[in-house]
Design a protein that fits this description.
By secondary structure, the chain is an alpha/beta fold. It contains three helices and six strands. A six-stranded mixed sheet has the order 4-3-1-2-5-6.
Length: about 140
């Protein structure tokens, strides 16, 4: 089994509505996403012969989603009052909403599904909220 890994980083803010602790307040992270893909085979023809996938393609696919989240407020749908949301949007703040609470665990699953949707056989995705704290998602 071949396994390839690449990383992407993005800066983003979030908060956890209903959480009893410091993370209930808006705060930011330098998120790091590590994706590992797997394959039984390497390509046998063309310019990618001997490769599972070109690292440049793998990196770009991961970075596309990291770039979308970069320097945004990442929130769960419905976690802000309509008036608050309207005021932030009126000020041209970039807000990305998800149907889930934006924890490291849920973001790991999000990136897993995102890369799987791009056609990769994903082994795992880890999301580092800090250099010492990570959440990992796998299907098995």
């Amino acid at each position: 089994m071949y396994r390839l890994e690449t990383k992407a980083k993005f800066d983003g803010a979030h908060f956890l509505k209903g959480y009893e602790g410091k993370c209930a307040n808006i705060h930011g992270h330098r998120w790091e996403v590590v994706v590992e893909v797997k394959s039984e085979e390497v390509q046998t023809e063309g310019s990618f012969r001997g490769m599972v996938v070109d690292f440049a393609v793998l990196k770009k696919d991961l970075r596309d989603e990291a770039k979308r989240l970069d320097h945004a407020l990442i929130i769960e749908e419905g976690s802000l009052k309509e008036k608050t949301m309207g005021a932030l949007l009126e000020e041209d703040f970039r807000i990305i909403t998800f149907p889930f609470r934006p924890t490291a665990e849920n973001l790991a699953k999000h990136f897993f599904e995102y890369m799987k949707g791009r056609g990769y056989d994903v082994a795992s995705v880890s999301v580092y909220e800090t250099p010492n704290n990570k959440a990992t998602y796998t299907e098995s």
